[in-house]
Amino acid sequence: MKETKALNGTGVAIITPFDVTGRPDILALRKLVDHLAENNINNIVVLGTTGESVTLSEPEQRLVVETVVEQNAGRCAVTVGMGGNNTAALEQKMKSFDFTGIDGILSVSPYYNKPTQEGIFRHYEVLGNAAPRPILLYNVPGRTGSNMLADTTLRIAEECKNIAGIKEASGNMEQIMNIIRNKPKNFLVISGDDALTLPILAAGGDGVISVVANALPKLFSTMVNYCMQNRYQDALPMHNAMLEFTRLMFADGNPGGIKAALKVLGITDEYVRLPLVNVRPEIFKAIEHETNQLKHYNLKD
To answer: What's the predicted TM-score (pTM) here?
Structure first.
């Protein structure tokens, strides 16, 4: 397996900015990449759910990936989202995709057709053999309609090629702790829930792929770094300070919330593509208040 060190720490599920015409806003995307790379982010994850990848055409997806890779210029790891419920199509995509500048693949567990645990295992067995970069599994039952059980995750980690770890967004701490306790030594367990990042790291996790850190990269990455240094007394106040902001990010759906925060910061606009819509005015007002409070958070070191 390739070196996976760069995939731990603070990852960001980067948004795709759009302009008023609905096209990808490349200038804003470059600005956002700099905002992340200059504020201690370890891994930029492109073409995820937060990036509205399912509403992007293939040429737009290529444009977004190429822009992020070029603007990042090697400062952070770059992971590309590449998942779905058609195993054969994904296998071919992984064999033909240009992975120049890409360090990893985030691949969501198959959705909608709701495979059995054996089907999930065989899906990743095929992808592991096809992928030219390490794969992070992605378990998010709230979106896929099925939960990848701990036993399945551990079986994949032990038996499948090229599997670097898992982004766990089940919200089930018992399941996550079971994976952490029984996983192979170099298998990464990455938080997929911003609000659970601190407890997952405290239980022995290896990092996060965050939505919140699009807007607050320095604050969030500092909290993560404190946790990884066992400085939980320093990390906890930051965790608590961001809890309401985190709740608001998902109050009217993702990425509407984080795009509202980025608009407040003057980094991108808040346009999303249907069927998503912008957050309600009252939620925007609350996000504006929390964003303005947190951007002045006093980081001592």
So the answer is: 0.96
138 has catalytic annotation: yes
111 has catalytic annotation: no
C-beta of residue 273 within 8 angstroms of C-beta of residue 50 = no
| Residue 102 contacts residue 78 (beta carbons within 8 Å) | yes
Q: pLDDT for 201-214, tens place per residue?
A: 999 999 999 999 99
Instruction: Give pairs for 113-118: CB < 8 Å, separation 24+.
Output: 113/85, 114/145, 114/146, 115/85, 115/146, 117/148, 117/149, 117/151, 117/152
Give the pLDDT mean for 182-209: 98
Give the other-Cβ count within 10 Å of 118's Cβ. 10
| C-alpha neighbours within 13 Å on the C-beta side of residue 265 | 24
> What angle, rounded to 10 degrees, do the helices at 256-264 and 281-294 form?
50
Residue listed under structure tokens 């054996």: 118
Asked if pLDDT for residue 109 goes beyond 70, the answer is yes
Domains defined along the chain, listed by start: 5-233 (3.20.20.70)
How many residues make up the chain in this entry? 301
**Per the residue annotation, which of 124, 167, 263, 271 is the catalytic one?**
167
- Residue 2's pLDDT band (cuts 50, 70, 90): very low
- Long-range contacts for 54-60 (Cβ within 8 Å, ≥24 apart)? 55/273, 55/274, 55/276, 56/16, 56/24, 60/24
C-alpha triplet 161, 209, 10: angle, nearest 5°: 105
138, 218, 259, 271: the active-site residue = 138
Question: How far is it, in rounded angstroms, from Cα 147 to Cα 142?
Answer: 8
φ, ψ of residue 151 to 5 degrees: the values are -60, -35
CA distance 176 to 150: 7
Residue holding tokens 């806003």?
25
Q: Which amino acid is located at 248 in the chain?
A: L
- Token pair, residue 147, equals 């939960």
